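User: Sequence recovery, please. Input:
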């Protein structure tokens, strides 16, 4: 299996995955994850476990997990067969529902992340401190990290301006961001990620210092142009 249809988790145990290039989302085989967490000896055991769990979650009204997708993945016999799959958010929700020692580290991590997000809402500076710590652990230089954190600040100024101008998050944000990226790089964000051989990874986390500076300059300029246009419109009574 190549990078797009298989990844390894828990040492040598494999989880079949599928990369949806259009949505830019990883889908994971649910029975593979269950087989590892519950230490099932065979596929049928994991399949039966998922069948019972899915029924229970459905009765509880849990649509996040029960409304999963089905995709054709390579089975043990080498044939393509439909398999229940879930995206990252659904898999993490599923892990929370499985009583397994192997699932406990994930549950503890989810609880920690949730608590940290609450803290960051009360004190936004904490998010920058944690970002600095994370980048340092990943081996980035302090100079690059300073540029990256500055780029986050510049991006926030731009999105705040977009919000004031009535730009909708999601598709409209993506369209405008693509135009800005094309202006200085010649690539849309999706094509830029392909150029750098990235999938779900954050594009800006894989930019050089120069790329970050050019991107910041483009976004800061866009923010100033928008503010200037707004001031002119106010003076004209628009």
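Assistant: Recovered sequence (238 residues):
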């Amino acid at each position: 299996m190549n990078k797009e249809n298989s990844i390894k988790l828990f040492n040598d145990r494999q989880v079949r995955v599928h990369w949806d290039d259009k949505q830019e989302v990883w889908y994971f085989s649910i029975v593979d994850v269950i087989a590892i967490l519950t230490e099932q000896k065979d596929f049928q055991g994991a399949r039966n476990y998922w069948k019972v769990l899915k029924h229970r979650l459905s009765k509880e009204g849990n649509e996040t997990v029960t409304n999963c997708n089905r995709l054709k993945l390579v089975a043990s016999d080498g044939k393509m067969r439909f398999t229940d799959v879930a995206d990252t958010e659904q898999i993490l929700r599923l892990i929370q529902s499985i009583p397994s020692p192997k699932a406990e580290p994930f549950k503890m991590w989810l609880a920690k992340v949730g608590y940290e997000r609450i803290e960051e809402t009360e004190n936004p500076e904490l998010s920058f401190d944690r970002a600095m710590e994370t980048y340092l652990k990943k081996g980035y230089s302090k100079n690059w990290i300073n540029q990256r954190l500055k780029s986050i600040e510049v991006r926030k100024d731009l999105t705040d301006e977009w919000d004031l101008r009535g730009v909708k998050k999601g598709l409209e944000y993506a369209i405008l961001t693509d135009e800005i990226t094309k202006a200085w790089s010649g690539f849309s964000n999706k094509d830029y990620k392909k150029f750098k051989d990235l999938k779900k990874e954050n594009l800006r986390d894989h930019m050089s210092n120069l790329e970050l500076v050019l991107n910041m300059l483009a976004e800061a300029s866009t923010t100033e142009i928008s503010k200037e246009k707004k001031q002119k419109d106010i003076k004209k009574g628009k």
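The chain has two domains: 6-114, 124-235.
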